[in-house]
Amino acid sequence: QVQLVESGGGVVQPGRSLRLSCAASGFTFSSYAMHWVRQAPGKGLEWVAVIWYDGSNKLYADSVKGRFTISRDNSKNTVYLQMNSLRAEDTAVYYCARGLQYRLDVWGQGTTVTVSS
Amino acid sequence: DIQLTQSPSFLSASVGDRVTVTCRASQGISNYLAWYQQKPGKAPNLLIYAASTLQSGVPSRFSGSGSGTEFTLTITSLQPEDFAAYYCQQLNSFPLTFGGGTKVEIK
């Protein structure tokens, strides 16, 4: 079945780095754009980044631009989010999601990132 | 950036009620709007896309309407499993944005 599984979350000190992974299965990964969306504790959803199906274009929310990098390896059916210079306000559950025109139709279960000293 | 304003932010309703949630965009987004349901501790689940297209597998009591700047999500005959948070999202332009959410609770 179509599935996305995130990993790589954890507790990290401010200013440090973390890399999240999202492994896809059950569909032709290389045909789809992939997104990261996050949700701070008790808050709403915030879009973070997108990467085109072939990696040719990457876009970011202003809140993470210059600190986060999205990438993908279509041979491994995996999308990544490299997070540098982490701040307390980056604490959230991070979801990866498959992108289609008009919607994000498949979501992973999320991985929790806590930035704290 | 396109701002999405959802109302109400909180809604108390009973099983069997008809519920309507509104999402207003700060500028026209045609029909590039999706609705998601999220239950506590779970990932969002797509309900409606292109403003009014029901995602496969979603019960027909959910419906969406609107275009331009004003959109609505309607749940006819609210069921116990519908008590959750609902979010709209615009996919007209980047950065993609979400509404602030509407929490539907049991009266």
Secondary-structure topology with pairs:
The complex is a heterodimer of chains A (117) and B (107).
Chain A: E1 3-7, E2 10-12, E3 18-25, E4 33-39, E5 45-51, E6 58-60, E7 68-73, E8 78-83, E9 92-100, E10 103-107, E11 111-115
Parallel strand pairs in A: 2-11
Antiparallel strand pairs in A: 1-3, 3-8, 4-5, 4-9, 5-6, 7-8, 9-10, 9-11
Chain B: E1 4-7, E2 10-13, E3 19-25, E4 33-38, E5 45-49, E6 53-54, E7 62-67, E8 70-75, E9 85-90, E10 97-98, E11 102-106
Parallel strand pairs in B: 2-11
Antiparallel strand pairs in B: 1-3, 3-8, 4-5, 4-9, 5-6, 7-8, 9-10, 9-11
Q: Which overall shape of chain A is indicated by the principal axes computed on the Cα atoms?
A: globular
C-alpha geometry of chain B = globular
Spans where pLDDT lies below 50 across 5 or more residues of chain A: none
The number of helical runs of chain A is 0
Elements of chain A, N to C (H/E): EEEEEEEEEEE
Radius of gyration of chain A: 13 Å
Helix content of chain A: under 10%
Mean pLDDT rating of chain A: 98
Average pLDDT rating of chain B: 97
* Separation, N- and C-terminal Cα atoms of chain A: 40 Å
Q: Spans of chain B of 5+ residues with little confidence (pLDDT < 50)?
A: none
Order of helices and strands of chain B: EEEEEEEEEEE
Task: Walk me through this protein's architecture.
The complex is a heterodimer of chains A (117) and B (107). By secondary structure, chain A is mostly beta strands. Chain A contains no helices and eleven strands. In chain A, strands 2, 4, 5, 6, 9, 10 and 11 form a seven-stranded mixed sheet that branches. A four-stranded antiparallel sheet of chain A has the order 1-3-8-7, with no helix packed on it. Chain B is an all-beta fold. Chain B contains no helices and eleven strands. In chain B, a hairpin with a 2-residue loop joins strand 7 and strand 8. Chains A and B meet through strand 5 and strand 10 of A and strand 4, strand 5 and strand 10 of B.
